[in-house]
Amino acid sequence: MIVRTVKVLNRAGMHTRPAAAIVKLASEFSSDFYINKDGFQINGKSIIGVMTLAAAQGSTLELTFEGADEAAMADAMADYFAKGFDEM
Amino acid sequence: MLHYTGIAANGGIVIGPAYHYNRSLLVAEDRMLEPDEVAPQLEQFEYAVARSKGELEKISALAEHKAGKQGSAIFEAQSMMLADTYVLDTIRRRIRDEKKSAAFIVDSEYNIHQHFLQTSENPLLRERADDVEDIKQRLLRHLLEKQKWISKLDHPAIVVAEFMTPADAILFSRQELLGFATDGGGATSHVAILARSLGLPAIVGLRGAAAHIETNDILILDGDLGELFVTPDDDTLARYRERLMEIQSKKKIVAAKGKETEFPPETIDGKKIVVNMNMELISDEAIAEAESMSKIKSKPVRGLGLLRTEHFLSEYDEIPSETDQTRIYSDLANRFYPAPITIRTFDIGGDKFIGGGFREKNPFLGWRGIRISLDQPETHIEQLRAILRASARQNVKLLLPMITTVDELEKVMHYLDEAKQELRQNGEAFDENIPLGVMIEVPAAALHAPAFATRCDFLSIGTNDLTQYTLAVDRGNEFVAHLFDELHPAVLRLIAMSVRAAHARKKPVSLCGEMAGKPIALPFIIGMGIDEISVAPNRVQMISGLIRKLKYSETKLLVRKVLEESQTIPELKQTLFRFLHKRNLVEDFLTPVEIEMIEGYGK
């Protein structure tokens, strides 16, 4: 299992468009993907779940990846977070 | 006993149990499933997901076509939310484990997510709660609607609702119904129109009554006065039972008198006016009724003045295939042959075309009627071909709704030529000279009537929409519905202009819409020289009877007087009233409410 800590950088936070993009990106990998925030854990392949996290700008999230392609998935996801969901 | 007063939408008195229909809140019952219900519930859930997905795809494609990528983003997001396999799997698992109905689990599962979003500090996410609500409602609609209703009503009842769509009313019409009472809507709302075409007593605009009425409460619905009594006391019941007896004995006398022997009816001085029927509802019962009304001396002579094809959408839930349309239209044309039937192309709002999730800010000024048809040429040509095939025995006319520009008419003519060409190539039979008519229902069309009359074969004045657009009153909005009145001098002027424009070019004019069935307006309609009117089947006898009691020469003078002198609606109505009064026709043809209201103007 890989654990990464990321920050939400864009101003609007993790709203619909980024949530959809995260789920889409996650669906390209076979590993399980969970997002933890303030003690909540949601399935990162569920768009409604990702949205309900309501992660605003500046929030810190813990991402966990587990499965055959976990390393590649962790890199891709961390990269997308680092780019502020292409909204910066 | 509770007592409410609303808008009398259709006359008649009925006493019976209530059925409270709750449309606005689709909430699922919390009920344990029997073991053999689990699999069908899971199947229904998959069906609801598939249907909802299809609707969202349509809306999304349309939004992209109309508003670009930005416009479709919201529906794309909804599509993704709907396709959330994590949520769908959770629902499937919960239906199996908890053994509750699919609707209940859907409701509960989406509520959890909605709650998280609603309590978010981020306004963008709070808005997304609405998307989850949309998805939930869409699924619930497919899971609950129809089955829910059909399974519930097992005895005749008065349907009470806060709000009802035309589709609801049509579903109800298949049941044994006693009447309608709704909180919303004006006298010309769709529910009111349907009640009239079903011949059921109805009250609309009851504002807040529905909440106080429970299923099986005994009601007295007085559609003449717009009064509703809930769990009435013995005195009130006795009074109304007596009135019902009186009415029934009166009805028998009228029925004995009302047998028609000649068609079309003509005025005392020999002017013939064709009285046809509107088909508001396309159910087996409605068609059978219209068919029997069509026959005089066992021959069909009275035709269908307006066949609203959009009602097939409520029936089929989507636009029927070209084959189905051909079958339906041809069947009707054959059943009424040689009487003519006028088929109007789909007059739908965008919401009906692509499902419940499509909303326009201003639907009456939006994407509807011919505008949708011209934006979807393939669907339009399919309908034109189906109508053309039905015209093989030359008793079909084609009518176009919501026309505002000559350009639109010319485009349809172009598509019609194309459709004819295809049928010719396939060797299929149709009427080469199928009459093509334009609905005059937008002021622009009335003001520009000469241009339309030059290009088409007949005009048909739709008074409901013409009034709505001329007076800028949404007839379904109970806050302004009282401002809706066809007998506004401006509306009558527009009608007169259209008739003159058509007759100057030797083209016939028909009039459909509520106004055609109102005795108070009839002398004016006749006096303008309208060739054909189309009314609800249950008004045919009465209107034909009144025509036979009028003199065309006198009605022509009345028209001149009205157009020249009447400045206000009350003045105008009093003039019309006096015309009937002088001829001793008021008692026989006007309702007590109309008489009271018009006499009230004088005081």
Distance between the termini of chain B: 33 Å
How are the strands of the biggest sheet of chain A laid out side by side? 1-4-2-3
Largest sheet of chain A: 4 strands, antiparallel
Which architecture name of the domain at 303-434 in chain B does CATH use?
A: Alpha-Beta Barrel
Within the CATH hierarchy, at the fold level, what is the topology of chain A? Histidine-containing Protein, Chain: A
pLDDT averaged over residues of chain A = 90
| Estimated helix fraction of chain A | 25-40%
Estimated radius of gyration of chain A: 11 Å
- Name the biggest interface: A-B, 18 and 20 residues
CATH topology (fold) name of the domain at 303-434 in chain B? TIM Barrel
Query: What is the multimeric organization of the chains shown?
Result: heterodimer
Mean pLDDT of chain B: 86
Please compute the radius of gyration of chain B using only Cα atoms: 26 Å
Number of strands of chain A: 4
User: How many domains of chain A?
Assistant: 1
Q: Strands of the biggest beta sheet of chain B: in what spatial order?
A: 1-8-7-3-4-5-6-2
Write a structural description:
The complex is a heterodimer of chains A (88) and B (603). Helix content of chain A is 35%, strand content 26%. With 88 residues, chain A is of the alpha+beta class. The model of chain A has no long low-confidence stretch (mean pLDDT 90). Chain A starts with a strand and ends in a 6-residue tail after the last helix. In chain A, a hairpin with a 2-residue loop joins strand 2 and strand 3. Chain A has a single domain, classed as 2-Layer Sandwich (Histidine-containing Protein, Chain: A). Chain A has a 4-stranded antiparallel sheet, covered by helices on one side. Chain B is α/β, with parallel strands linked by helices. Among the domains of chain B are: 122 residues, 3-Layer(bba) Sandwich (Glucose Oxidase, domain 1); 110 residues, Enzyme I, Chain A, domain 2 (Orthogonal Bundle); 132 residues, Phosphoenolpyruvate-binding domains (TIM Barrel), CATH 3.20.20.60. Chain B is 52% helix and 14% strand. Chain B has 25 helices and 18 strands. In chain B, the strands form 3 sheets. Chain B has an 8-stranded mixed sheet. In chain B, helix 1 runs antiparallel to helix 2. The radius of gyration of chain B is 26 Å and the shape is globular. Chain B starts with a strand and ends with a helix. About 1% of the residues of chain B have low confidence. At the A-B interface, helix 1 and helix 2 of A face helix 1, helix 2, helix 3 and helix 4 of B.
